[in-house]
């Protein structure tokens, strides 16, 4: 049987970022040091394959600390948590580790600095996302306001237009966020902003790589979870950049292969919490249906590494 030809443009970078790798390693090292079970508040990263692999090693994922028994070890997810969470863990005498991405922690510290300077903080982010909940939770209730769109900025009511500062979620669309920041600066010229971009290097690089492959591809597939903000942003980026279709696939067995009917050029990327084994699995499935030519499209080479908590390396 003659398989139709398909050129695959493979985005680079893609998949795990340094913050995700660090968070997973923290859980694995904690299990090695303390043995199972080790409790993790919320998914350590937004990927079921990763979560299930850690569960098999003895990690137990919970929604809230009241599900963690006294005397247990608990880890906070890479997305960050409100200040009340480690305070509660300490009050209960739990041994806890914080796997929050260092770049998310950077945003937390920016929030605190603005608040200490007497500024009201505006956060650009998606309501209900764990990172946003954790970041807003660094300050007392009402000290920070959330906006998602330019329209939200136009409707914003603040007590002191000259006493504002803004931060952003780290996994937003680079292009959409630039529009919201521009709207904030138009309405509030005195607003303070971060010295460096809050959107993390991994989000920026993966969106740039998707732009590069979307310009060549009929269809773009992003391997990632439906609750992964950075993965959803890659789909939006692909559609905006010119791909006629773009879809999010968590596992290959969920793929609607009819979406590739007539496709001659396919772009493939993966969200920052998706392991590369899922990309390899998807490419293998493509190879069963098409005669593949694979080209890697690299826009930047990443070499970022984050240190581990002292409790695990001492």
Draw up the topology in text.
Elements: E1 5-12, H1 18-34, E2 38-41, H2 48-57, E3 59-62, E4 73-76, H3 84-91, E5 95-98, H4 102-116, E6 120-124, H5 130-136, E7 144-147, H6 150-154, E8 164-168, H7 174-187, H8 201-214, E9 219-223, H9 229-241, E10 245-249, E11 265-270, H10 276-289, E12 291-298, H11 310-313
Parallel strand pairs: 1-11, 1-12, 2-3, 2-4, 4-5, 6-7, 6-8, 9-10, 9-11
Helix pairs in contact: 4-5, 8-9
Q: Which structural traits does this protein have?
A:
314 residues; alpha/beta; Cobalt-precorrin-4 Transmethylase, domain 1; Rossmann fold; 3 domains; five-stranded parallel sheet; four-stranded parallel sheet; 12 strands; 39% helix; flat
Task: Give the C-level CATH assignment of the largest domain.
Answer: Alpha Beta
Strand content: 15-25%
Adjacency order of strands in the biggest sheet: 10-9-11-1-12
Question: What's the structural domain tally?
Answer: 3
Helix vs. strand class: alpha/beta
Level of helix content? 25-40%
Output the radius of gyration: 21 Å
CATH topology (fold) name of the largest domain: Cobalt-precorrin-4 Transmethylase, domain 1
Number of strands: 12
How would you describe what is shown here?
The protein is built from eleven helices and twelve strands. The protein is flat, with a radius of gyration of 21 Å. Helix 4 packs parallel to helix 5 and helix 8 runs parallel beside helix 9. It has 314 residues and is an alpha/beta fold. The strands form three sheets. Strands 10-9-11-1-12 form a five-stranded parallel β-sheet, with helices on both faces. Strands 3-2-4-5 form a four-stranded parallel β-sheet, sandwiched between helices. Strands 7-6-8 form a three-stranded parallel β-sheet, with helices on both faces.
């Amino acid at each position: 049987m003659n398989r139709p030809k398909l050129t695959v443009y493979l985005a680079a970078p893609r998949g795990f970022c340094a913050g995700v790798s660090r968070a997973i390693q923290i859980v694995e090292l904690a299990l090695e040091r303390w043995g199972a079970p080790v409790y993790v508040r919320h998914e350590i990263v937004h990927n079921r394959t990763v979560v299930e692999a850690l569960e098999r090693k003895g990690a137990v994922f919970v929604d809230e600390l009241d599900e963690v028994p006294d005397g247990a070890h608990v880890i906070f997810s890479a997305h960050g948590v409100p200040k009340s969470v480690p305070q509660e863990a300490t009050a209960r005498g739990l041994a806890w580790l914080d796997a929050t991405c260092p770049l998310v922690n950077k945003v937390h510290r920016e929030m605190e600095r603005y608040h200490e300077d007497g500024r009201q903080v505006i956060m650009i982010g998606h309501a209900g996302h764990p990172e946003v909940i954790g970041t807003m939770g660094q300050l007392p209730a009402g000290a920070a306001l959330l906006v998602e769109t330019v329209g939200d900025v136009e409707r914003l009511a603040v007590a002191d237009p000259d006493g504002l500062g803004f931060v952003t979620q780290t996994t937003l669309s680079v292009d959409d966020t630039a529009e919201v920041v521009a709207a904030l600066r138009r309405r509030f010229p005195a607003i303070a902003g971060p010295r460096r971009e809050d959107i993390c290097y991994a989000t920026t690089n993966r969106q740039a790589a998707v732009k590069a492959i979307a310009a060549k591809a009929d269809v773009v597939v992003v391997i990632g979870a439906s609750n992964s903000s950075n993965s959803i942003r890659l789909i939006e980026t692909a559609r905006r950049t010119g791909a006629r279709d773009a879809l999010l696939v968590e596992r290959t067995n969920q793929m609607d292969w009819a979406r590739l009917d007539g496709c001659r050029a396919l772009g493939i990327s993966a969200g920052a919490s998706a392991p590369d084994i899922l990309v390899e699995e998807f490419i293998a499935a493509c190879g069963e249906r098409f005669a593949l030519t694979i080209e890697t499209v690299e826009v930047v080479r990443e070499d970022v590494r984050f240190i581990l908590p002292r409790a695990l390396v001492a």
